[in-house]
Every structure is written in structure tokens, then in C-alpha cells.
Amino acid sequence: MPIERIHHVAYRCKDAKQTVEWYGKYLGMNFILAIAEDQVPSTKAPDPYMHVFLDAGAGNVLAFFELPNSPAMGRDQNTPEWVQHIAFKVGSVDELEQIKARLQADGIEVVGLTDHTIFKSIYFFDPNGHRLELAADTATPKMAKDLDEVKWAMLNEWAQTKRAPKHAAWMHESEFKH
């Protein structure tokens, strides 16, 4: 039974309408579906919600729940803020720079352009406090092949040592010569 794709990924939001409008304005995501219930279908718990779905491109769907009767949203205090994020692919570094300028023009703080060697990215937060990343691929076929060849060795070494393996240290060298 192979997985075909992710059907949707769901997160919580503070305000469904604000979230739909924000993702439309800044990331060009179309609003494709709304579901609202007074009772949770899976558990039958009485908990009204608004569930909105956004087109994240290429069959990917990003969804949010607004839960007005639940305590205010929080985050995992034991996980650094930079770890949990949603990353979206854009077509080019030029697009990345244009989006960054538009976000900053509206007062949204943006970190980056960060050069990860195989892609460049920017980071910022949506109005719900979710960290977002936009990434533009820059890898060459040789880079992709070299990384593919060491992935299992890196994972196995990490599982044993819990130290960063150096199989792909070339990605972080200041003078990239690959």
C-alpha cells in the first residue's frame, strides 16, 4: 500500500478568516474548502470548529483549525523555535527575494536569504506564530547524487554517536569546491 501523497497537513490558527487572507496575500494560496462542525466527527466531542483548506500547489493542501472554545494556542517550550516549521518551495532565488521584499514592506520580519548550498531560503512567522520557510533549490545534479550516496551512512553514524557526521561537510565549507 504505497502512499500517493500527503492529503493535507493541518495546524491550529487563531482566526480562520485572517489566516486564509494572509496566506492568499503573501503566498498566493487559494482558499479551496471550509468545513465547520459543532461536534468533532472522529471523537463526537462537542467542540465547534472552523476547518479551512488552502491550495499549496502541486496537489499539496495546507489546512487550519480555529477552535474558539479551546485555551489560547501555545507551542512546545522544549523545542527551539527554529525546528518546527513549514517549508514551501518557490521557483527561483529571484522569486524568493521578491517575496522577502514584499513581506518586509508590510513590516513582517524575515530571516535570510540563508544559503544552505543545495537551496537558499528565508524564514518568517505567519499571524498564528507558525514559522514558515520559503526555499529555492540551487543544487546541481552532482550535489544531489553525492548527498544521496551518503545519506544512509550519515543516518547510521548519527544513530550511534548523536554527533553530526562529516560525510557532507562540503556543504558548509566557506569556499565551496564541489
Automatic annotation (TrEMBL):
<dbReference type="InterPro" id="IPR029068">
    <property type="entry name" value="Glyas_Bleomycin-R_OHBP_Dase"/>
</dbReference>
<dbReference type="Pfam" id="PF00903">
    <property type="entry name" value="Glyoxalase"/>
</dbReference>
<dbReference type="InterPro" id="IPR037523">
    <property type="entry name" value="VOC_core"/>
</dbReference>
<keyword id="KW-0408">Iron</keyword>
<dbReference type="GO" id="GO:0008198">
    <property type="term" value="F:ferrous iron binding"/>
</dbReference>
<dbReference type="GO" id="GO:0051213">
    <property type="term" value="F:dioxygenase activity"/>
</dbReference>
<keyword id="KW-0058">Aromatic hydrocarbons catabolism</keyword>
<feature type="domain" description="VOC">
    <location>
        <begin position="5"/>
        <end position="137"/>
    </location>
</feature>
<dbReference type="InterPro" id="IPR004360">
    <property type="entry name" value="Glyas_Fos-R_dOase_dom"/>
</dbReference>
<comment type="similarity">
    <text>Belongs to the extradiol ring-cleavage dioxygenase family.</text>
</comment>
<keyword id="KW-0223">Dioxygenase</keyword>
<dbReference type="InterPro" id="IPR050383">
    <property type="entry name" value="GlyoxalaseI/FosfomycinResist"/>
</dbReference>
<keyword id="KW-0560">Oxidoreductase</keyword>
<protein>
    <submittedName>
        <fullName>VOC family protein</fullName>
    </submittedName>
</protein>
<keyword id="KW-0479">Metal-binding</keyword>
<dbReference type="InterPro" id="IPR000486">
    <property type="entry name" value="Xdiol_ring_cleave_dOase_1/2"/>
</dbReference>
